[in-house]
Amino acid sequence: xxxxxxxxxxxxxxxxRESVSxxxxxxxxxxxxxxxxxxxxxxxFTALAQVAEILRESPVLxxxxxxxxxxxxxxxxxxxxxxxxxxxxxxxxxGHSERREHFGETDYTVNTKVLAALQATLIxxxxxxxxxxxxxxxxxxxxxxxQVKIALYNVPTVQLEHVILAYEPVWAxxxxxxxxxxxxxxxxxxxxRGTVAEIYGSELAQELPILYGGxxxxxxxxxxxxxxxxxxxxxxxxAWRVTDFIQLIALVERVTVGRVYV
Length: 262
Ligand code: PEP
Prior knowledge:
Layout: E1 5-9, H1 16-32, E2 38-42, H2 45-54, E3 61-64, H3 81-86, E4 91-94, H4 97-102, H5 107-119, E5 123-128, H6 132-136, H7 140-151, E6 164-167, H8 182-200, H9 202-207, E7 210-213, H10 221-225, E8 232-235, H11 242-256
Parallel strand pairs: 1-2, 1-8, 2-3, 3-4, 4-5, 5-6, 6-7, 7-8
Helix pairs in contact: 1-2, 5-7, 7-8
Bound molecules: phosphoenolpyruvate (PEP).
Phosphoenolpyruvate binds next to strand 8.
C-alpha cells in the first residue's frame, strides 16, 4: 500500500498569527477526522516552529520552502538544514521554479541541498518542471530528466525512500498558470519514474512518491488523482485558506479511498 500525499506551500504568505490560526484549525479538524492521506504544509520560516509545535501530535508533516546547503557558517540571512530540523521541520521543499527563476537556484545547487537535507534527516521535496518554451520545442521530457538526474546525483540507494519529487511545470504554476492536463501529468510522471528506475531500479522507483503541482484546485484534483503514476498533489493558492485545504483533504480522501498500488 502506497501513501497518497497532499500538501500545500504557502510561499511568502501568512504571518505568524495567520499561520498559527490555520494550524490550530487544521489540528482541530484532524483530531475529529484522522486523515487517510499523508498531509504536509510548508509555512514561511518565521512560523515554522510554532506551526510544527501545534501539529506535533498530528500526522501532518511540517516543512520549509528552502534552505542553505551548508550546515552552518557565515551565510547571513540563510537557514540551514540542522536549524530547520531543530524547529520541528520534517521536510524541505527544494528547487521550486520561483527559486530557480528569482534566486539563482540551479540543478547543481538543488543537488547539494538534497544531500544536505538528507544528512540532516529532512525529507527533500524536490520540484522539477519545464518552462513553456521547452514544451513547445518538444524537449520537456529531456529537461525534466536532466533535472531529476542531477537532483538525485550521489543520493545513496538507501536514502531514496526519504525523497519526494514534485512535477511542477513552470507554465502551470501561479496566477497566470494553466493547469497541466491529467494526461500530460501522467506522461511526465512516467518519464520521471523511468529516469529514477534507470538509476535505482524499477522496484525502488515504484515506491518513490511523485506529486503534481500547478494550479491544482477542487475542480481538477479528482481527475489528476485517478491517473496512473500520480501519487499526490502539491497545492498552492487553492489551499491557502484552511477551510479550502480541509475540503481538499476530504475530496482527495474520497477519490483515493482503498487505493492500492502495485
Ligand atoms: C506552486 O507554486 O508550487 C503551486 C503549486 O502553486 P499554485 O497551486 O498556486 O499554482
